């Protein structure tokens, strides 16, 4: 009965109370992929379901890996209060990697005293330095774009970034340090 409402290039079954599907897709045409996506989204909305989609399966012998990706999404990422219907593993891969790391090493031990000092200063002075840092890193260190997003004058943002660098005791010009900061900030987001 389940497969009657699903297109012929998708095989679906119920496993552990979830609908698990495999979609055969060798389509390299973005227009057709978009049509499939719209159809799938409409089907989910009509049926009242949310989908978790793994990375593209390249080897059926590794189906367990793709199932782990879906399971991770179902257990950690799907927000039933959200209007979002489709969750792609690729969008949450950093969360997955961090969860694996923090299963071995506690999150708090990943943060140096620099990060803790920044958090303490932010709480004490009531200045949103973490959000400033997040926006700055998300904008690939583009001061003009970050200032616009934060509704700050460019000079004010430059002063705030200088304060952040001083508190971190490290330059934001160092790409490895920026990566470390991104990881720490992602961990903080996952804690919330």
TrEMBL record:
Alphabetical list of PANTHER family matching this protein: CARBOHYDRATE DIACID REGULATOR
Matching Pfam families: HTH_30
Source lineage: Bacteria, Bacillati, Bacillota, Clostridia, Lachnospirales
Name the record gives this protein: Helix-turn-helix domain-containing protein
Source organism of the structure: Blautia ammoniilytica
PucR C-terminal helix-turn-helix domain segment(s): 129-186
């Amino acid at each position: 009965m389940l497969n009657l409402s699903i297109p012929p290039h998708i095989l679906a079954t119920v496993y552990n109370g979830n609908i698990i599907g495999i979609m055969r897709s060798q389509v390299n045409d973005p227009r057709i992929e978009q049509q499939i996506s719209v159809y799938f989204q409409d089907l989910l909305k009509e049926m009242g379901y949310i989908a978790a989609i793994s990375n593209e399966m390249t080897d059926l012998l590794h189906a367990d890996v793709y199932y782990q990706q879906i399971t991770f999404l179902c257990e950690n990422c799907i927000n039933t209060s959200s209007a979002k219907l489709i969750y792609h593993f690729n969008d949450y891969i950093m969360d997955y990697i961090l969860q694996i790391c923090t299963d071995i090493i506690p999150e708090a031990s990943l943060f140096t005293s620099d990060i803790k000092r920044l958090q303490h200063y932010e709480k004490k002075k009531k200045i949103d330095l973490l959000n400033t840092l997040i926006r700055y890193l998300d904008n690939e260190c583009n001061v003009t774009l970050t200032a616009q997003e934060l509704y700050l004058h460019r000079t004010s943002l430059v002063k705030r970034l200088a304060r952040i660098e001083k508190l971190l005791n490290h330059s934001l010009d160092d790409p490895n340090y920026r990566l470390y900061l991104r990881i720490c900030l992602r961990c903080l987001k996952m804690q919330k």
